[in-house]
Amino acid sequence: QVQLVESGGGLVRPGGSLRPSCAASGSIFRFTTMGWYRQAPGKERELVATISSGGTINYADSVKGRFTISRDNTKNTVNLQMNSLNPEDTAVYYCRTRTSIGGLYWGQGIQVTVSS
Known about the structure:
The protein is an all-beta fold. The chain is built from no helices and 11 strands. The protein has strands at about 5, 10, 20-25, 30-40, 45-50, 55-60, 65-70, 75-80, 90-100, 105, 110-115.
């Protein structure tokens, strides 16, 4: 059974940084595109960043230049370096992955709060 375990959320002041991490396990099939999504209170879940197994990256316009996504295919982990955080980045952040046979899996979500 596929599991996604997220860590690295928390409370940070505006202008600060966080580095959430997500570890995927339990699949006999290859993990393909991995990524991060977020959902703020009262808003729909939205894409933050994705990275394919070959390294193709996609960012939401709102995080370009501030966030950096990376992955380690040997460990099935995906990280999100978040710099210059502002209150609008406050949300629950979810890790998501697809498998090579089309499976889609979500993590349980971690809270990121940006506040002074």
